Amino acid sequence: MSRLNIANGRIEMVHGSGGRAMVELIEQLFASAFANEWLAQGNDGARFNLPPGRVVMATDSHVVSPLFFPGGDIGALAVHGTINDVAMSGATPCFLSAGFILEEGFALADLKRIVDSMAAASRQAGVPIVTGDTKVVERGKADGVFINTTGVGVVPDGIELSGDRARPGDMILVSGPIGDHGVCILSLRESLGFESEIRSDSQALHGLVAAMLEAVPQLRCLRDPTRGGLANTLNELAQQSAVGMQLDERAIPIREQVRAACELLGLDPLYVANEGKLIAICPAQHADRLLQVMQAHPQGEQAAIIGRVVEDPHRFVQMQTLFGGNRMVDWLNGEQLPRIC
Amino acid sequence: MKYVDEFRDGDKARALAALIHTEADPARRYHLMEFCGGHTHAIFRYGIPDLLPDNVRLIHGPGCPVCVLPIGRLDMAIGLARRPDVILCTYGDMLRVPGSGRDSLMKVRAEGTDVRMLYSPADAITLAQRHPDRQVVFFAIGFETTTPPTALVLEQARALGLDNFSVFCNHVLTPAAMHAILNTGEAARGELRLDGFIGPAHVSTVIGSAPYEPFPAQYERPVVIAGFEPLDLLQAILLLVRQLNEGRCEVENQFTRAVTRDGNRKAQRLVERVFERRASFEWRGLGAIPDSALRIRDAYAAFDAERRFNLEPLEGRENKACACPSVLRGVKRPHECTLFGNPCTPDNPLGACMVSSEGACAAYYSYGRRIERRAIEAREVMP
């Protein structure tokens, strides 16, 4: 078996052909980075036991452009995104899979950077990548690399989280400032050419979720406001639960730089994507306790109560503006920004 | 955020709103038209109608460039995009506007044509330099605010000697449309209730306040030029209410922080060098208006897409039930259209006013729908 030329080599069609070149790529680049006992089994699939409870499975494909950005890259994002999807069901994430679609000609050095970042993110989160797949497509048929990750987790007994459980009177909380990821990606697009110091908020939130559920097991809904941002996610929840929502614009945390960038570009931060924030809905009597626990956690220091669930047969999300008027916060129309995650 | 938050201050808003409530005469009604779609958007985004007394009503004018572009012109652009040698670029708002037969630039892009979204026309020049084997066409739309940048890229293209760059020019003029609104059949029959105009600040930074002087003089309609922040709008409304109460009729400038009587002379000279007035131009909803649009001068003919590609004028097919034309003339409100909300929505726009965030229908739908919820509800229960 020969050594891969990681510094100068590129992905070739042969790396996806099933032959020796593919084995070299998998062993020297993927297996060594992700190393764990399940991968070491060397089988097509990973075999594992799960702790008792209901099993949750979630999948997410990642096509972000550019591949590297301040605060993360496609690899870390692929790990965080799926962990968060599993965690939003109230589950403890246990295992991940990773599928790579690689474009012929993609630099091995960039691939290694991405894989190492995935491995680091997975180790930091304590959720191992136990099985995977790679495919190579001809140059021009993909954009460098696309990554699919699937996660499996277990919901402990007594936890009932679902998007249809919001009830009038409940409080709505957000775990921190919104819009960081979308504005970070936007600022890197060559057509815009502005510089910012905004970093993506890409991070795994299962630690925060565990702390929240321990303190307030009565929590009703959790969801991460990724594409479509806070506005779309709240509309989804209002739709599912057949309720309305009333937000207070003053209470919604948004970084000054994010507000300024959105102002300049005519974007509404309520619709800009996040990759490390969550929205929580809980009965009003537990809201203060939940807020305290979130603010005491490093991933929720700037958490805030941003509104409440109301009765509304129209399922409208509305917001008291800073200015004193009331406005609708509708679903996102069209696309605000392509390929952000 | 400095220079922004000051103009969105809730306490000042309440104080201004209170003044409007006090000063508006309950015995009369005030019909004020905000000409510009940017104002329409801001009015709904900040919930300004909630702050006004019932007898002060805002009418949404035709100042949304996407909305007033006739379907035939869009069909011409779609035809250009379908040419295999062309890269067609334009502003994002234009991509989803439905043309004849429900085509849009977005749809023809999905068919494999090369349509790109730009933030700045300067990017079109870069694109032309990068693709010397393709024809790059900038589909230019907009009022006086977006005209100088188009003029600038035309000058650049000529200086660079680019032979693969051209502009499909659809720039239109604000004062001409205001004249047209006051000269429609509805206006003659007294169906257009319009007591005064809120004039657009950004356009006026370029053209100045002088071009509005005929409106008080000829039509007895006061004009207050206003900025785009919510406090600017409230103040402009108050100024109009005061003019009407006092029987004054003049052009007032609320946006003194950037608008002068003469405007930006440098930009005007640039536009004058590159463009000349068309004898007449078709506006969606308003029909043909004389002297209301710009074309590229002969000196720049090589960069005029209409001439380079020998474009024939096209007659677009409107959806017959679509009330965009009446909405754009200020005689119908968006929810009075039978298509509003069902089936016409921002996700499935049938008319141009539902496409752009500056369009009155989209603003109503996205921000103000709750105000008119009964009207929509009535149609939702219909089979």
Explain this structure to me?
The complex is a heterodimer of chains A (341) and B (383). Chain A has 341 residues and is of the alpha+beta class. Chain A has two domains: 13-155, 60s Ribosomal Protein L30, Chain: A; 171-328, PurM-like C-terminal domain (Phosphoribosyl-aminoimidazole Synthetase, Chain A, domain 2, Alpha-Beta Complex), CATH 3.90.650.10. Chain A is built from nine helices and 13 strands. Chain A has helices spanning 20-34, 37-40, 74-87, 108-125, 180-188, 206-215, 229-241, 256-265, 287-296; strands at residues 54-62, 68-69, 72-73, 92-103, 129-137, 145-155, 171-174, 221-223, 244-248, 279-282, 304-310, 317-320, 326-328. Chain A has a seven-stranded mixed beta sheet. In chain A, α1 runs parallel beside α4, α3 runs parallel beside α4 (108-125) and α6 (206-215) runs antiparallel to α9 (287-296). The longest helix of chain A is centred in the middle third of the chain and has 18 residues, at 108-125. Chain A starts with 19 loop residues before the first helix and ends in a 13-residue tail after the last strand. The mean pLDDT of chain A is 94. Chain B has 17 helices and 13 strands. Chain B has 383 residues and is of the alpha/beta class. In chain B, α7 (147-160) packs across α13 (265-274). Chain B has helices spanning 10-23, 37-45, 65-68, 71-81, 105-110, 122-130, 147-160, 174-181, 185-188, 201-207, 214-219, 230-246, 265-274, 305-308, 324-328, 360-367, 373-380; strands at residues 30-36, 56-63, 86-91, 114-118, 135-142, 165-171, 196-200, 223-226, 251-253, 275-277, 280-283, 287-290, 294-296. Chain B has two domains: 1-318, Rossmann fold; 324-380, no CATH class. In chain B, the strands form four sheets. In chain B, strands 2-1-7-8-9 form a five-stranded parallel beta sheet, sandwiched between helices. Chain B has a four-stranded parallel beta sheet with strand order 4-3-5-6, with helices on both faces. Chain B has a two-stranded antiparallel ribbon with strand order 10-13. Mean pLDDT of chain B is 91; it is low at 374-383. Helix content of chain B is 38%, strand content 17%. In chain B, β3 (86-91), α5 and β4 (114-118) form a beta-alpha-beta unit. The interface between A and B is medium-sized, with 24 and 34 residues.
